[in-house]
Amino acid sequence: MAKKQNDTQQFRLDRYLSQSTGISRKVIHKILRDKLVTVNGEITKSASLSVSSVDTIIFDGEIIAAPAPRYFLYHKPKGLVCANKDRRYPTVIDEFEAEPRFQDLQCVGRLDIDTTGLLLVTDDGNWNHRISHPNHKCNKYYYADFEGTLPENAIEKCLQGIYLTKEKLRASPATLEPLSDHEANICIQEGRHHQVKRMFHALDCEVIELHRYKIGELCLENDFPVGEYRPLTVEEVALFTQDNTPSSTSTLPNDQPNV
Q1: Which spans in 169-238 are helix H?
Q2: Is residue 35 within 8 Å of 87, Cβ to Cβ?
Q3: How far apart, in whole angstroms, are the C-alpha atoms of residue 214 and residue 28?
Q4: What is the pLDDT of residues 132-158, one digit of tens each?
Q5: Which residues are catalytic?
């Protein structure tokens, strides 16, 4: 089948049709088997065919427009895991059940079950990748309350990259800003498992509270309620488009989180 070349968001055909029409995927599969859908003028029965907004998809005599991607800011509380399903704990995606097709939403990166703060949620896989993949060097900013005493060279150690024993490698350089004898802000560009907590552990400290307050140039409003979410504005979404990837330089902002 002839496919148009493009760099726009790709969908499986069954997902494209289901999200655009509201018809369940089970019914969509039957529609495809019955040869009622054409892609760029050709009948297809392949539910897994990759399509995008540049393709011409016709069902029941009508051109089906691409589903509009969704982008949300969420103030994550403690007690939720960043997953779509979990056998033991409630999930972040469960909090979006009022949204149509909420099961298609994904967390952008992860926060630990006991970590609070800014979390982005979307069904745009390419946009998600630009933020969460370390190759894009997107800054993530955290406030940490910890036990123990930071060594005098803690800032330098973070800038050099803390050695992570599990992966047997050094983390990317991070920016540490001590605020008191038990508080600090830290900026990282990766998202390894329990990374911030493990970095503090390597500095002989243990994190008691961890809160993410900023991603790239997007801040969590100090008065935004815990456990609530809102759609991102067009301008906020554009902060993370391919041409507007946040700077690779980790610098901590002057404004401090209200936690």
Answers
A1: 195-202, 234-238
A2: no
A3: 40
A4: 988 889 999 999 999 999 999 999 999
A5: 112
Within a 13 Å sphere around the CA of 191, how many CA atoms are in the beta-carbon half? 23
Interatomic CA distance for residues 27 and 220, integer angstroms: 40
Q: How many helices (H) and strands (E) does the chain have?
A: 6, 17
The phi and psi torsions of 184 (rounded to 5 degrees) equal -160, 155
151-160 burial: b if 16+ Cβ within 10 Å, else e? eeebbebbee
Pick from 50, 44, 39: nearest CA to 7:
50
How high is the pLDDT of residue 4?
Answer: 53
Reduce the DSSP state of residue 234 to 3 states and report it. helix
**Would the pTM count as exceeding 0.70?**
yes
Q: How many residues does the chain have?
A: 259
**Token pair of 19 as six digits:** 């999200």
Among 259, 256, 232, 255, residue whose Cα is nearest residue 77: 259
**Residue 191: which of 250, 122, 139, 244 has the closest Cα?**
139
Please name which of 1, 68, 11, 67 lies closest in space to residue 40, comparing C-alpha atoms.
1
79 closest CA partner among 111, 107, 118: 111
Structure tokens at 31: 């529609």
Instruction: Please report, for residues 42, 80, 193, 231, the alpha-carbon distance to residue 113 in angstroms, rounded to integers and kept in the order given.
Output: 47, 5, 12, 23
Domains along the chain?
A: 11-63 (3.10.290.10), 71-244 (3.30.2350.10)
Strands (E) across 134-224 are located at 140-147, 163-164, 169-170, 175-178, 183-188, 206-215, 218-219
